[in-house]
Prior knowledge:
The longest helix is centred in the first third of the chain and has 32 residues, at 80-111. The strands form 3 sheets. This protein has a 3-stranded mixed β-sheet. A two-stranded parallel ribbon has the order 4-7. It has helices at 21-33, 40-55, 64-78, 80-111, 128-146, 152-159, 183-186, 207-223, 234-256, 262-268, 286-313; strands spanning 7-9, 15-17, 61-63, 179-180, 194-196, 199-201, 229-230. α4 (80-111) packs antiparallel against α5, α8 (207-223) runs parallel beside α11 and α9 (234-256) runs antiparallel to α11 (286-313). It starts with 6 loop residues before the first strand and ends in a 10-residue tail after the last helix. It is mainly alpha-helical.
Amino acid sequence: MNNSNLKCIKRDGTVTPFTSVKIFDAIKKANIQASNVYSDEDIEEAVNRINAAILSLGVDEISVENIQDIVVKDLMLNLTDIAEGYITYRYKREMARNKNIVIIDKYKARVECENVQNSNANVDEYSFSGREKEAASDVSKTIALEFGGLSPKIAKAHKEMLVYQHDLEKAIYGVHNCLFLNFDKLFDPETGGFETRNGGVRVPSIFATAAQQMPVAYQLNSLCQFGGVATIHADTDLARFIKNSYQRYYRIGLKYIESRSNHFIETNYPKDQKLSINDPKYDLHPLVKEYADDMMADELRQGCEALYHNLNTLESRSGSQLK
């Protein structure tokens, strides 16, 4: 029993034709929650009574809140076993709406740079990516504490400062935090290298290439997680490539300084025989050794410079966080 002329004023101020379908659905949900204690006929009778009560008001418009008040009154008189369930459902819906408003307000404040505190020293909250990150962070925190992202017990303890959930905004994603990169494995010529979404990276063969690949590995892992990325023995991970680089320069020196043939070079200094840079065999050609020493020293300087500059300028997380 609907009045086609009656209008319903929704919470956002919009006006729509009044219909009893939503009233039936809401009561039905409360009935299901109570293990279907009433039949559909009982619910339809309740809806008819509610419609009659609304039409008896003699108004052209009625708010959603007033409709719900009339529903609650009828249920408490006639369908008492589900009245409490309906009231609880109404309350939860209201709480959810209020939380949504809070989330939107927080998000807008971040977007518009209101009350910037720069609480994370690694994030510039005025930058495009910084605003985007902090806005998403506020939404994630609210979900964690108010929408079941964390268990009610942990969320309550966090609010009461009994425990502190570090990186609260990340808790709902269930991802790991800090890690050590195993370059001993990544740089292994047999099984090393690594894949990205855009392609693969082969194992480096010389020191300069390894020094440039190391920051790339840091950045790629940082972009896919949160927290720190580190290694505990970068020096020894890179040192293995000095033999390769030194031998390369020595072989070049033999060819262009002493005009040695490829057969001589491959026989006496083959690529697959990695000698220590202090091996006496390198002393057999003093001018070539001097050239290899100078070129190796230059590669070490340039490789380390590339390593330091990349580590200090490559950005990982949005908001300009650096390694």
